[in-house]
Amino acid sequence: MTTGKIARKSPYKVEVQEGKKYAWCACGLSGNQPFCDGSHKVTDLKPLIYKASETQELYFCGCKQTGSAPLCDGTHNKL
Fold first, then answer.
1. I need a surface site. Which of 11, 17, 49, 57 has the fewest CB within 10 A?
2. 49 and 22 Cβ atoms separated by less than 8 Å
3. Contacts by 27-35 with C-beta closer than 8 Å and gap 24+?
4. Coiled coil located at which positions (predicted)?
5. In this structure, are strands 56-60 and 12-16 parallel, antiparallel, or unpaired?
6. SS3 of residue 31 by DSSP
7. Residue 63 Cα distances to 12, 27, 33, 53, 57, angstroms
8. Residue 56, SS3?
9. How confident is the model over 12-34, as pLDDT tens digits?
């Protein structure tokens, strides 16, 4: 598996907290989307750690095909 499974064709709106780390699911198999629950262990993919620089709303990629991981870049509109 070199690219993640599409979890959904839209982003996840998340309120992140300044200084907190978030483990974004890159494989698409997590039951806790858009975050990792360890399901990637059956793949060669690993979660991407995102550290919030400020408290704000962000859109984490749900299709797992983004070019700006872990955030959505609109790639899901082309799938």
1. 57
2. yes
3. 27/1, 27/64, 28/4, 28/64, 29/4, 29/5, 33/7, 33/8, 33/62, 34/7, 34/60, 34/61, 34/62, 34/70
4. none
5. antiparallel
6. coil
7. 10, 10, 11, 24, 19
8. strand
9. 999 999 999 999 999 999 999 99
